[in-house]
Specification:
heterodimer, A: alpha/beta, Rossmann fold, 2 domains, seven-stranded mixed beta sheet, five-stranded mixed beta sheet, 12 helices, 40% helix, 19% strand, globular, B: alpha/beta, Pyruvate-ferredoxin Oxidoreductase, domain 3, six-stranded mixed beta sheet, 6 strands
Chain lengths: 360, 179
Amino acid sequence: MNKQLMYGTYAIGEAAIQAGCTCYFGYPITPQNELPEYMSRRLLEVPGGVFIQAESELAAINMVLGASVAGARVMTSSSSPGISLKQEGISFLAGSELPAVIVNIVRGGPGLGNIAPAQSDYFQATRGGGHGDYKTIVLAPASVQEMADLTFLAFDLSDQYRMPALILGDGMLGQIMEPVVIPARKKKKLPEKDYILTGARGRPARLVKSLILDTRQMEDHNWKLVRKFQRVKQNETRWESFLLEDAEMVVIAYGTAARIAKGSINRLKKEDPDIKIGMIRPITLSPFPEKIIRETAGKVSDFFVFEMSTGQMVEDVKLSLEGRGTVHFYGRPGGVSPTPAEVARIMARHYPQSKSTGKK
Amino acid sequence: MLIKTMFSGFGGQGVLSTGQTLAKAAMLENKHVTYLPSYGAEVRGGTANCTVTISDKDIASPIASEPEFVVALNQPSFFRFQNLLRAGGFLLYNSSLVKPASVRGDIETLGIPSTGLAADLGNVRVSNMVILGAFIRISNLISLKLLLKNLPDILGPGKLRLLEINKKAFQAGYNYIKE
C-alpha cells in the first residue's frame, strides 16, 4: 500500500485487517469511535468478516473470548471507562490462555473523566487490569506508523504466547493524522492453534476454561503463566533510545508524552548545543524495558520521567533503577497536553547543575 | 525546516479540511507532516482548530509551543490564537469576517477577504481554500503547482465534482497576494 495520510485509529483498523483480523466487537465511546467505524466498513469487505456493535462493553469482550476460542483473530477497542468494564473478560482471556488484541485509546479519568488524551491507565494496563495473577503484553505506539506496526505485532505476539495483547494509545494518537505505509502481512511462523474449539469429530474433545478448582493445579497454572511472561520479557522487550550515548540526563517517556519530550529535547539543544539530554522511550510497557534503564544508570545519574498522569510509569523506572540515580518527575494529568516549551523549561531545571552551561 | 501552522475558525467553515488539505499536499511532496485536530465536544458553529506541522526531518512533537503561522477564519480565533504565535510570526486572517483590532506589535498580519472572493467564484464554501491559496503564497511551504496537480488525489473520488471550483479558489487566494 502507498503512503497515506491516516488517522491513528484508522491505521490500527487497516493494520488489523491486513493482519488477518476477521472479528471486531465493541461498544462506542469517545475518543476511539473512528476505529469501530472503520472496522464496520472494512470487515464487510473481508471474507467471513464479522462486526458487531455489542449491547455493552461486557458483551463485547465476551464475544471476543468466543471468537478467540473458535480460532479467529479478534480485536476490540474502547477508551478508559469502557476498558474498565472489559477487565473481567480480559482476566478470563488470560486465565484461559486465549489471544486477543485490545485497544485502549486512553482519556482523562477517573470515572467518566473527559475525552482528552491522558496516560492515566498505565497501572491498569501493565498490572493485568482484572483480578488474578496475570499480566498482558502492553504496546505503546508514539506515531501513526507505530499504531499500524504495533497492531501487526500485537496479533502475532498474542497468538505466539496465547495471551491478550493491549495497545495503549491516547486521544491524541487516535485523532492525529500522519503519513503511514501499511505493509502486507509478513506471515510469521506461529504455533498451530491446537486448543481451539472447532467441533470434535475425529479428535478427542477439548476444553478451554479458566475454572480450576484444584488448588495445586491452579498454582501450577499460575506459575506457568509467570514462566510464559518471563519468556515474553526475554524475547519481546522493545524500546527506542535517542541521543543516549553521551547523555548527562535521560528522559523516560512513552507514547504522546515521548513525542512532546523529544520536541523539548530538540528545543533545548537548539538553544544550547552543549546540553546533553537523551531519551529512552519504552515501546513495550509490559514487559517494561528495565534492563536498558538499569544499564544506563551506570553512566547517568539523573533521570527525568514525564507522563500525562500523576505518576505511574515513574514507579517502574524506580523499580528498574533499584536505587541507582535520582529520578525527577513531571506529570500533567487530566487530559492536558503540555507544549514542548513547557516541558523543556522543567527539564532544564532538573538538568545537573554542574553540567549546565549557565543558560536557561 | 520545521514549521507549525494553526488553522482556526468556526466549526463548519472547513478549518479541519483546510489543515488536512495542506497536510496531504505536503505529504505528496514527500515532506514529513503531522495534522493534529482540536478534539473536544465540538459542534457546528463552535470553534475548531488544527495544527499542521511540516518538516524535512522526523517531527518530534505534533503540538505547537509557538506556531510560525496562524490562519484565523473568524474573529474569536483572531484574538485567541495570535497570542500563541512566536515573535515574528505571521497571522493571516479572513478580512470578510475579522476586524483586526488589538494586534500584537511583534507579528506580521495580513487580511484577505476570502469569503468575498469565494462568493465571487459562486460558492462561499470554498472560502477556506481561497485563504489556503493565499497561505501557500505567503508561507512557501508547498508548491501551488504540485497541489493543483495532486488535487484529485487529495480530494478523493467522492469530491471530484468539486475539483474545478477548488482549483479556482486556490488560484484566487494565491493571486490576491501576488497583486
